[in-house]
Amino acid sequence: MSQRFTTDVLIIGGGAAGLTAALTLSQHARVTVLCKGDITSGSSHWAQGGVAAVTDPEDSFESHVADTLDAGAGLCDPEVVRATVAAGPDAIAQLAQWGVNFDTEGNALHLTREGGHSFRRVVHVADATGKAITKTLTDQVLDNGSIELFNDRVAIDLINLSTLGRHHSRCAGAYVLNRSSGRVEVFQSRFVILATGGASKVYLYTSNPDSSTGDGIAMAWRAGCRVANMEFNQFHPTCLYHPHAGSFLISEAVRGEGGVLRLPNGQRFMQRFDERRELAPRDIVARAIDHEMKRIGADCVYLDISHLSAAFIHGHFPNIAQKCSELGIDITKDPIPVVPAAHYTCGGVVVDEHGRTDVPNLYAIGEVSCTGLHGANRLASNSLLECLVYGHRAAQKIISSLDKRQNDPYIPKWDESKVTDSDESVIIAHNWDELRRFMWDYVGIVRTDKRLMRAHRRIELLKQ
User: Any catalytic annotation for residue 268?
Assistant: First the structure.
């Protein structure tokens, strides 16, 4: 017997966006949060940098807006950028109220700088801000009687009433695979919030956890939502290059605090590509590294911070120093081997200023969405800002709609007769590996029509 659950608001994804929405909603509605693995399996948990927000009196909203528009190559929505930037200080205050202990210097927040920012405005917790935020939000959620948390659940498809033969389009829940039992469960709800993250795991080299497979974007597309800007996949310039490093990121803040990029022979090279050198926006730095690696046939370049004091390095980058040390790299003396890796999906499900999609009662927030904030390239540390601002906005919009009565339709159980056993698991693993390889080779940092056509043909073959 397949299990059924009913709730007011179903949130698919337990990162910063989903948990912010859950906590904001919890005083007004029954909330259910689904996580693919446990609460630490998403990208928010691994975010190193911090939250970009104007908190220094000498900084200004205008400056933060200008930096965002510049990094996004002029393809951001200026109104969205202004509204999101203006909401930054309140988002930081809310996190502090929930219990996030940001780094301070004297009586003020300690602010670091990252590529593309003309000012120090990144609020952080050492070099593990995402971990600190998700842990605090998770603790709050676990203590909250109105929020139910389900781990090891993978949403398979959204339930749109129009596809069930009903007359009008409305999202009424999701079919969800229980990974422990192997059964598909029905989660029926009045509202659904997609907070499933991005799609960077579609590339061979990525800074993202295994859960970033873009399935939230695909579900929304199948349910009838518009999707935009998927070509703008951001590559982080500096992922640790080591056979045992997994997908470990070397934070943008390392360059923000004075780290320099060098070729294997020790030469600096960023001055040839941009006058801001190492502090240019990510897309420029990633393309420069890619160009130099191809030009000289190198496997990686090096990020050097050894000219700074050991005390400063261990104080500001304790996690990076420890991870490198485990791999035999002493970053107080040695340069760090780095390569670019797929990092952030700038596009996604098209939403309005409240996170609403084209399908009534379906919202999308965080990396799964396309709000107009990022344009062609995301400014460093604007991602957690967007998660917090849109998590709050979507929740407020839903709260204002809760008293509108609507009939609870009967949702049929998952139809297993339409599911075919695609093949042995090993074949699926091979196809997945092949997809990630040709995405990296043909749809990577620098693209050509010829390479894209080649990738398209391979995808058609895999689909067959």
Answer: no
